[in-house]
Amino acid sequence: VIQRRGKFPVQQDFYKDWQSYKNGFGNVSEEFWLGNENIRVLCLEGCKIRFDLVDEKAEKRFALYQNFTLTSGNYTIKVSGYSGDAGKQF
């Protein structure tokens, strides 16, 4: 899990600066962002990524990408190999 958002007693502020998103923030037991650099290092050998989505009607969807990388420096996301029910626009 690289990010969690939800209805927790203490809401995490996600309006952060670039350095915060690079390093990560929040509480891993509640809402958090793992950090761009941490994610990049975890995926140096290549990895998959899955997005689990829940809308305001509690309907669930997902998007799975078989190939996920994050570039160094500007942390550009590169994905391919989509499957799921979130729709190809995701």
From TrEMBL:
Which PROSITE patterns does the entry mention?
FIBRINOGEN_C_2
Segments forming domain Fibrinogen C-terminal: 1-90
> What Pfam families does the record point to?
Fibrinogen_C
An annotated GO cellular component of this protein is: extracellular space
Name it.
Answer: Fibrinogen C-terminal domain-containing protein
